[in-house]
Amino acid sequence: MHGIVPLKLEENAIDVQLGRLSNSVQVVFSNNYNAKKTKMSDKNEGNPPAEKTIFDAIAQGDLTEFKNILAKHKGGVDFFDENGMTALQHAAYKGNKDMVQLLLDRGADVNSGKHEYNYTSLHFGALSGSSDVCKLLLDAGAKSTATNSVGRSAAQMAAFVGNHHTVATINNYLPRSEIAYYSTLQGQQTEPYLPAFLVEPLHKFVLGVNIHPVRLALNLQHSPALLEHADKVIKVLELMCKKEMTRGSETNEVMAFKYHYLAYIVREISNIRDKQKPAADKDEKKHDIVEIFSKKLLKPGKDGVSLDLMDTFLKDCVREFPFRECTTFHQMVTSLTSKDPPPALSIINCTINGQRGFVDVIPYCSTCGEEKPAKKCSKCKSVQYCDRECQRLHWFVHKKACNRESSVPAPTSNTKVNIDANELSSELQNLIAG
Ligand SMILES: [Zn+2]
Ligand SMILES: [Zn+2]
């Protein structure tokens, strides 16, 4: 079973259904498939056995078998099945990252395909909901603007089936070359804007879909080179912002704002780092920067819930966006100044990722907003975190609520606001898989 015939919906039907979580897609797939299979079955007999077994291994998700067949297969991998689909398209539709990587390593053409409805590998990856697969395809040069026979791009199809993370991955993508450009000498320069060793970490940093300030701070902490050269990173992000706004018809205001936003966060964290420098012993104070930053942002306001400091911090970021004539800026300001406005973080997240903010039914990390975090507080089970680091950073807020909701005595009964790692360790031991 490897013939996949994607949904063919009328233009209006897609508009009506776009954004709705749709199980019906699978139905459309299989119904069309069955009808098609009978019609096309005789053509299938022409497929050489090796090629057919590759399709079969992908359909069964059998990676070992797939590797074996691929190793024996001497020719190219851009052959088609009876529906005009390549092996890469099948692997992408299955959301199988390893198989996609192996096929790309074997030189699979990421934009190849003769599918009747013009679906590309990226369309299939988008439908699979695997952001990793989409990232691999984009790295290999997949055209995100390619549309299928009903005029829909891969990101639009991902939205149609409710794969919001995949939508954001595709929309936030930029090729590595866009950043590598700044590591080459421009004009009269004697030194490039960006040292070559920062291209990779900065690319990764920019591609991140989770734009929660604490997540960005953690990402920076894991890429110390970026923070060490914060001035260069900020400069390049500002240049990228400006470049994005001066592309004429290709202008991408949203990406321009994202670069501005990232530069703003890097600057803030770099300022905290500079203030810490004189007194701090490097090894001892490993977590201080992120801790100070998240204490500032996650501290609840007077009502005990809303994050007033975070809101002020992020509103200032929007206010400092240098391109005030653009639509994106106006939309954000309109939302921020509306009666009973949503949190600034939600507005910024909607702007950049084209989706609801951190206010959905999907569980998210209380510290950094990461979706579907793996752990939850073992005592109250009412909050979730990515890992111990995220729990540790949030404990100064959560400890009161946790103690209230739990009958188990608190591990620490003092009222100190600053809690160090040792004090927390017993509590952290209790962090369980959610
Ligand atoms: Zn987290
Ligand atoms: Zn708790």
Q: Pick out the low-confidence regions.
A: 1-45, 408-430
What topology, given as strand order, has the largest sheet?
2-1-3
Helix content: 40-55%
Strand content: under 5%
Number of discrete helical segments: 22
Small molecules bound: zinc ion
Instruction: List SSEs in N-to-C order.
Output: HHHHHHHHHHHHHHHHHHHHEEHHE
Mean pLDDT: 82
First-residue to last-residue Cα separation: 35 Å
Provide the structure class.
mainly alpha
What sort of overall outline do the alpha carbons produce when their principal axes are compared?
globular
> Whole-number radius of gyration?
25 Å
ANK repeats: 83-115, 117-149
Subcellular location: Cell projection, Cilium
Keywords: ANK repeat, Cell projection, Cilium, Metal-binding, Repeat, Zinc, Zinc-finger
Protein name: MYND-type domain-containing protein
Structure notes:
A 3-stranded antiparallel sheet has the order 2-1-3. It has 434 residues and is an all-alpha fold. It is globular, with a radius of gyration of 25 Å. The chain has helices spanning 11-17, 24-44, 49-60, 63-72, 87-93, 97-105, 121-128, 131-139, 154-160, 164-171, 176-180, 199-207, 213-222, 224-228, 230-245, 253-276, 288-298, 308-319, 327-336, 344-353, 388-405, 421-429; strands spanning 375-376, 384-385, 432-433. It has 3 domains: 11-171, Serine Threonine Protein Phosphatase 5, Tetratricopeptide repeat, CATH 1.25.40.20; 176-356, no CATH class; 375-433, no CATH class. α6 (97-105) runs parallel beside α8 (131-139), α16 (253-276) crosses α17 and α17 crosses α21 (388-405). The chain contains 22 helices and 3 strands. The structure holds zinc ion (2 copies). One zinc ion (ZN) binds next to α21. It is found in: Cell projection, Cilium. This is MYND-type domain-containing protein.
